[in-house]
Amino acid sequence: MPATYLRLLAREHPRPQQILTRFGVFESAPSDPDTISVAEFFALVRAVDSSRPDRGWHLDMARRTADHFHGPLTFALMSAPTIGDGVRAFARYVRIRGPYLRGATQQTGFKFKIEFAELGDFDDLRPVLLEIPFRILQDYVSMIGDVNLEAASLSLKYPSTRKRRYYRQGFDCPVLFEQSANVLTMPAAWMAIPNPQYDETTWLNARAQCEVALSDLTPTDTVTRTRVYVDAVLPRDPRKLCIDDAARNLGLSVRTLIRRLRKDGTSFQAVRDKARQDLALRLLRKPNLTVEEIALAVGFSGAANFSRAFKRWFGSSPVRYRREHIS
Known about the structure:
Layout: H1 3-10, H2 16-21, H3 38-51, H4 57-68, H5 72-79, H6 83-97, E1 101-108, E2 111-118, H7 126-145, E3 153-155, H8 164-171, E4 175-176, E5 183-187, H9 200-217, H10 221-233, H11 243-250, H12 254-263, H13 268-284, H14 291-297, H15 303-314, H16 318-326
Helix pairs in contact: 1-3, 3-10, 4-7, 5-6, 5-9, 6-7, 6-9, 10-11, 10-13, 14-15
């Protein structure tokens, strides 16, 4: 994910630079990495959410983000021929902004549905990570079509975690909990409403750029879903990161997961090791952490085992690497 996302999210924290420093990122620094991991993004979401007494902070952020965001997906939305074209584009390309989500649309009779499925275990972050894209979609439909959102409804798989008033004010439509899927349902007639900002050249170019970004993001669906799961679990419970739990979370048997990853030239161990490597390098940038603490954080029993693995990965010890490349 772009490091810009981390900076935008950090602004929701009472002390943005203090929280960014934990990730080795600064509000303005050309030497910062261009991208961040899903695990880093999840960690910052959790830190911001715990710091905010107002439980609807992320919906306010969604509105501001929708107004000021740039990139091919925004251009596709704003230049689409109709609301339906824009909504379908958002569902297809949502992973450009949130690689932990998969979108799908379906029209049944007079109803049009857009569903967001979780590619991994969101745990306590589900309200924030799922409600933001739904709020962005509502704002888009309302802005283009000038419709009454009361005619829509939102279904969420998880139980209510906030007061009903919060959901009512946050979504302007009925919200149902503990449903079978995360779905925003709208009148199908809205999808035919023309977009007054439609521009054919911009629309075609934006979609082409989105396709390129999507193909760069997802070499294969199984590899990406596995990496998202590993990135989500690694910071929380690295010692319990195993292929059995990963396969169960992805809805696959262990043998099927092994076979699909092998077909794409990788393995669960390789995906896990790459996530460990990335996390280890990020943690080494934090001078207050010892090698022992980093070892435990990435799933090793101690500094000795971690140092051996690190030398195998990068050709030097963690201490030497920190001294020569980071300090």
